[in-house]
Amino acid sequence: MSLYSRQMLAFMAVAQELHFGRAAQRLHMTQPPLSQQVRLFEERVGVPLLERSTRSVRLTAAGEAMRDAMQRLMDDGDAALATVRRVATGEAGLLRVGFTPTAAYRLVPAALGAYRERRPDVQLSMTEADTGHLRALLAQDRLDVAVMRHTADSQAEGLHLEPVDTEPLVVALPLRHAWSSRRSIPIEELAAVPLIGFARSTSAYFHTLLASLFARNGLAPNYVMESVLPTLLALVEAGIGAAVVPGSVSELRPGGVKYLPLKARHTLRSTLYLAYRKDGANPAVPALCDALRHASRYKSSTS
């Protein structure tokens, strides 16, 4: 593919070779059409670019300036072509990534680290938000890919959704809590103590998940306050109550909080979903999806 006119290429060949015969060979053409193309180029420019004699070809001062300017233009054009081709293959460009706060504790950092090694020239734009906001940004084509929770209306919005990571729920306790030396906490005992829950308005997924967890075990939680991560952990550390959180939160390891397994007859897991528009066209998306799947702990047999 050439970005340049035949006349420009003819002039540049002669300007570099300073010989019509060698320039014609280089362009795989005969001398007469080459000379005609060069004359047409000079006419377009409006000033003589070459001094011709029977023995030699020389550039005029204007010709030297034109040669140098055209070389810079061709170098820039070649660089632009290389960049465009790399963007088309997903090796460069911009990738807009959204993620829920809990995805930032393990999955997203692990996946992005691997992705950056494979695609160092892709610029990443990161947005942290709740699932509802991420879903809206995907629908508005303001994100290319998101790691979020599943919602009932996501599929209707033309999104590809697949479970990409799953983890158990654990109990977060103040470090000096009477239960802190235990190996696990039975859900029956947990339901009887003050708990910090997830706010429905901003953490609808976890609010619903925990309601289902307690209901399946025939229990009702004793919520004394509701909040969002990471503020919820600060409330636990302050001794206001215990909390049930996704296991990856324990990787934060704040000094005043201890995490213990939750023991229950009927358990539930927290699941993260990979989401992107079915009509999305960003070629950088597949490699990030692969990185997320590779970093995932999800197994198809889990529920």
UniProtKB/TrEMBL annotation:
Molecular function (Gene Ontology), one example: DNA binding
Top-level taxon: Bacteria
A Gene Ontology cellular-component term: protein-DNA complex
Pfam families hit by this protein: HTH_1 (PF00126), LysR_substrate (PF03466)
Keywords from the named record: DNA-binding, Transcription, Transcription regulation
Domain HTH lysR-type: 1-60
Gene3D superfamilies: Periplasmic binding protein-like II (3.40.190.10), Winged helix-like DNA-binding domain superfamily/Winged helix DNA-binding domain (1.10.10.10)
Family label: Belongs to the LysR transcriptional regulatory family.
Name by which UniProt lists this protein: LysR family transcriptional regulator
Protein source organism: Parapusillimonas granuli
Organism lineage: Bacteria, Pseudomonadati, Pseudomonadota, Betaproteobacteria, Burkholderiales
